[in-house]
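pls design
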C-alpha cells in the first residue's frame, strides 16, 4: 500500500494515520500501459429517406457507409506517432510480439484504424518504409457476436434492459423527452423517419449523417440549422446518459465498460504475476466503448468522444521501490480528444492524481463484474473462482465464457449485441 512506509513511524503518529493522505505518491517508472481508442473519421452509418445527398454518398465515400476515410487513416497515423513519442523510452524501438498486444473489434473501420495507428507507432510498419524493411503488425480480433470485451451485450441482457427502463422511466428523462416531442415530430416530417416514441438512437443517427456530410463539404438541407444540430446533440447526450450514467451507473458498468476495465487490470496483474515482458495493450474500438469505459470510471461528462479519441491507463511503480507488488503501483489516466494539445490528465473520482493500484481497484470494484459472474440474467450465473491476483484473469475468462455459453443459447442477431443500436 502507498502508506506502508508509515508503519515505521512512532506510535503517537500512527494514531494520526487515518488523517494522513496517502497522496501524493512520487511517480516512478512506467511499467505498463493500456490504451483504448475510437476509430478515425468514417462515412455516415446511414442515410435517411429525404436525404438530398443520397446520390453523392458513393462519390464522397466510395468505400461505403460506415467505412474509414482517408482522413480517418491520417488521424490514426497521427495518434500512433503521438504514442511513439510518449513511449519512446518505454517501448522497444521495433515491435516485439511479447511486448505489445493489439485487439480490435471485428469492424473494417476499427481494424484499419488499428493498423494505421501501428504504422505511426512502429517504424518498420510506417508508410514509405523501403520495401525490404517494411513489416505489418498483427491485430487480433474475435467475431462481432463473440466480442464481450469491446462491444457489450446490452440488447440481449435482460438485466441491462431493466436498468435502462428504470433510467428512461425516470421523471427527469421523461420531462426532457416531452420537451422534445415537437422537435422530433418536425424532424420526422423533414427526414421521413419515424422518430417519436422510437429509440433516441435514431435521432442520433440523423445527427451523425449530417455531421459526416458537413465535414466532407456537402451542404446541409435548410432545416438542419446549427440549432437543430445542437438539439440533436442534447438528445443524444440524454440517451448516452441513460445508458452509462445514473441511476445505478455502477451496475450498468458491470455489464458494459466494467468488463473492459476489469480486463485491463487483469492484463496488468497477469503480466506482473507471471513476470511477462508485456508492456502495452491497445484496444481499437468505438465511441460506445469509450463512453462505457468512462461510465465505469465515473468520468462520463456529456461529451461524445471524437474520432481517434484515446483513453490511456499508465501504470507506474512508486519511486525507490524494487518490489513487484501491485500495492506499490499507481495508475494515471489520460484522455486525448484533441490532437492539437497535450492529452488531458484525468483523475478517478475519489483518487486525485496518480492513484495507488489497490485504491483504484477498491474504488472501481462496484463498476467491475463481481467474481461470481456478470449478473446479466439475475442470480442464475454460474459461480467462478474468487478473484485474487492470478485467478483474476482466469476469473474474467470464466465470466466471459459463462456469459458466452449462457447467451449463446439465445439466437443472437448482430443487432442484439449492439451497444445502444451499434458501436459507431
Ligand atoms: C411534411 O409536411 C408537409 C405539410 O404538412 C407535407 O406536405 C409533406 O409531405 C411532409 N413530408 C414528409 C416527408 O412527411
Ligand atoms: C487481456 O485481457 C483480455 C480479456 O481477458 C484477454 O482476452 C487478452 O488475451 C489479454 N491480453 C493479454 C496480452 O494478456
Ligand atoms: C512496497 O514498497 C515497500 C518499500 O518501499 C516495501 O517495504 C513493501 O513491501 C512494498 N509492498 C507493499 C505491498 O507495500
Ligand atoms: C475533450 O474532453 C474534455 C473533457 O471531457 C472536454 O471538456 C472537451 O470539450 C473535449 N474536447 C473535444 C475537442 O472534444
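designed seq:
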Amino acid at each position: 500500500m502507498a502508506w506502508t512506509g508509515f508503519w515505521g513511524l512512532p506510535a503517537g503518529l500512527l494514531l494520526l494515520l487515518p488523517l494522513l493522505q496517502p497522496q501524493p505518491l512520487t511517480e516512478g517508472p512506467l511499467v505498463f500501459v493500456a490504451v483504448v481508442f475510437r476509430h478515425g473519421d468514417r462515412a455516415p452509418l446511414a442515410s435517411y429517406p429525404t436525404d438530398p445527398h443520397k446520390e453523392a454518398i458513393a462519390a464522397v465515400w466510395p468505400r461505403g457507409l460506415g467505412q474509414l476515410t482517408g482522413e480517418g487513416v491520417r488521424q490514426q497515423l497521427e495518434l500512433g506517432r503521438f504514442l511513439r513519442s510518449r513511449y519512446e523510452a518505454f517501448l522497444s524501438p521495433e515491435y516485439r510480439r511479447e511486448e505489445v498486444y493489439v485487439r480490435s473489434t471485428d469492424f473494417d473501420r476499427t481494424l484499419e484504424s488499428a493498423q494505421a495507428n501501428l504504422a505511426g507507432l512502429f517504424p518498420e510498419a510506417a508508410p514509405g518504409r523501403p520495401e525490404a524493411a517494411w513489416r505489418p503488425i498483427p491485430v487480433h480480433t474475435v467475431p462481432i457476436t463473440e466480442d464481450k470485451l469491446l462491444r457489450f451485450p446490452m440488447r440481449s441482457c435482460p438485466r441491462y434492459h431493466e436498468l435502462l427502463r428504470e433510467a428512461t422511466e425516470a421523471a427527469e428523462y421523461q420531462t426532457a423527452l416531452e420537451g422534445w416531442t415537437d422537435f422530433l415530430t418536425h424532424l420526422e416530417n423533414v427526414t421521413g423517419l419515424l422518430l417519436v416514441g422510437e429509440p433516441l438512437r435514431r435521432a442520433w443517427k440523423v445527427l451523425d449523417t449530417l455531421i459526416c456530410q458537413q465535414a466532407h463539404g456537402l451542404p446541409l438541407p435548410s432545416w438542419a440549422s446549427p440549432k437543430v444540430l445542437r438539439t440533436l446533440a442534447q438528445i443524444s447526450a440524454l440517451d448516452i446518459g441513460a445508458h452509462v450514467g445514473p441511476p445505478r451507473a455502477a451496475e450498468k458498468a458491470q455489464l458494459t465498460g466494467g468488463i473492459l476495465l476489469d480486463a485491463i487490470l487483469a492484463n496488468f496483474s497477469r503480466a506482473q504475476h507471471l513476470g511477462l515482458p508485456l508492456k502495452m495493450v491497445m484496444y481499437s474500438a468505438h465511441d460506445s466503448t469509450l463512453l462505457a469505459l468512462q461510465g465505469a470510471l465515473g468520468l462520463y461528462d456529456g461529451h461524445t468522444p471524437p474520432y481517434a479519441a484515446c483513453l490511456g491507463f499508465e501504470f507506474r511503480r512508486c519511486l525507490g521501490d524494487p518490489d513487484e507488488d501491485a500495492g506499490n503501483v499507481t495508475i494515471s489516466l489520460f484522455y486525448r480528444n484533441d490532437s492539437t494539445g497535450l492529452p488531458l490528465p484525468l483523475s478517478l473520482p475519489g483518487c486525485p492524481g496518480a492513484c495507488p493500484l489497490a485504491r483504484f481497484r477498491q474504488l472501481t470494484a462496484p463498476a467491475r463484474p463481481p467474481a461470481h459472474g456478470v449478473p446479466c440474467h439475475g442470480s442464475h450465473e454460474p459461480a467462478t473462482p474468487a478473484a485474487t491476483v492470478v485467478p483474476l484473469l482466469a476469473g474474467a475468462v470464466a465470466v466471459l465464457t459463462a456469459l458466452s455459453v449462457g447467451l449463446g443459447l439465445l439466437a443472437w442477431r448482430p443487432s442484439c449485441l449492439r451497444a445502444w443500436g451499434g458501436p459507431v
